[in-house]
Amino acid sequence: MLHIGCHLSCASGYLAMGRQAAAIGADTFQFFTRNPRGGSVKAFDAQDAAALTAFLNEHGFAPVLAHAPYTLNACAADASIREFAERTMREDLERLAHIPGAMLNFHPGSHVKQGAETGIRLIAQMLDTVLTPDIQTPVLLETMAGKGSEVGRSFEELRAVMDTAACGGRLGVCLDTCHVFDAGYDIVNALDDVLGEFDRVIGLERLRAIHINDSKNPSGSRKDRHEKIGQGHIGLDAMVRIINHPALRNLPFYLETPNEIDGYAQEIALLRSRYTE
Ligand code: FE
Ligand code: FE
Ligand code: ZN
Asked: Which of 5, 46, 177, 205 lies 20 to 30 angstroms, CA to CA, from 229?
């Protein structure tokens, strides 16, 4: 079975997201742990988290994915921004401990003129501070498009974070189809080669989640502008090959396409109809 869902708003609480996902034919979903562009967070409701956990188990959901805020930058030049990143990730992981099975995805960061090497070292440092041995929640590095000074535009940069952090063996990866395409990986014409490269550099066993998005721009553009499924430069045929690929087909897929809930429901139905059981 294809495990697929979309990004949902956490505004009405945890259980509400589970119900909304089920109502549109999803069996997983993604949500922001807090305001994505600020970082403010509402009071934690442990009962609501427990209710969602029960709902996910009852309905046989695939792991849900929490997304850290965009403002989280573990390798900022400014120490106060790095402290915010550390505090935010620690708090988010404390909350996610109440939803067993949930994973946390984050953008590695932007090194802002310090160079990728320094960026990688700072990200690894933050992870080693936060990922104490008691933490069960899988933490995923997202593949980035490479706009500005983003770290994670290549598989090698993600590997370097894993190799630099003492906790690196515990890290996973979330592959964003729009981002890798924009970064220059040709998942349209050479999907097998790209996944082979991922396997050589990182190891496919580290791949835990897919953000399934089309792209408004051609491969190599480094733009990071998501498009609806089948309406961008990746196209529906490539999307269908991605969801059915033997190395990917059992992973959870999360839509982050520019849609309201009806559009998401349609994309989920479309992709389900093109999945080979
Ligand atoms: Fe993301
Ligand atoms: Fe993404
Ligand atoms: Zn993106």
From this structure: 205
Ligand 2 centre and the CA of 176: distance in Å? 5
165 C-alpha to ligand 2 centroid (Å) = 23
Q: Find the ligand nearest to 176 CA.
A: 2
pLDDT tens digits, 19-42: 999 999 999 999 999 988 988 888
For helices 155-164 and 191-201, angle between their N-to-C axes, nearest 10 degrees: 20
Under DSSP, is residue 28 helix (H, G, I), strand (E, B) or coil?
strand
Specify the pLDDT at position 38. 86
Residue-wise pLDDT for 126-136, tens only, equals 999 999 999 99
Rg, Å, the chain Cα set: 18
DSSP one-letter string for 96-131: HTTSTT-EEEE--EE-TTS-HHHHHHHHHHHHHHH-
Structure tokens at 138: 């899988």
For ligand 1, the distance from its centroid to the CA atom of residue 143, given in whole angstroms, is 8
Ligand nearest to the backbone CA of 70:
1
Q: How far is the CA of 211 from the centre of ligand 2 (A)?
A: 5
- Asked if 77 and 46 count as a contact pair (C-beta separation under 8 A), the reply is no
Query: Would you state the torsion angle of the CA atoms of residues 247, 253, 256, 260, taken in this order, to the nearest 10 degrees?
Result: 150
Which ligand ends up closest to the CA of 255? 2
**Residues measured by CB to lie within 5 Å of ligand 3, the ion:** 224
Task: List, for residues 49-84, the tens digit of each pLDDT value.
Answer: 999 999 999 999 999 999 999 999 999 999 999 999
Q: Beta strand pairing status for 226-227 and 214-215?
A: antiparallel
- Residue 58 identity: E
Q: Where do the domains of the chain lie, and which CATH numbers do they carry?
A: 3-273 (3.20.20.150)
Distance CA 213, CA 259 (A): 11
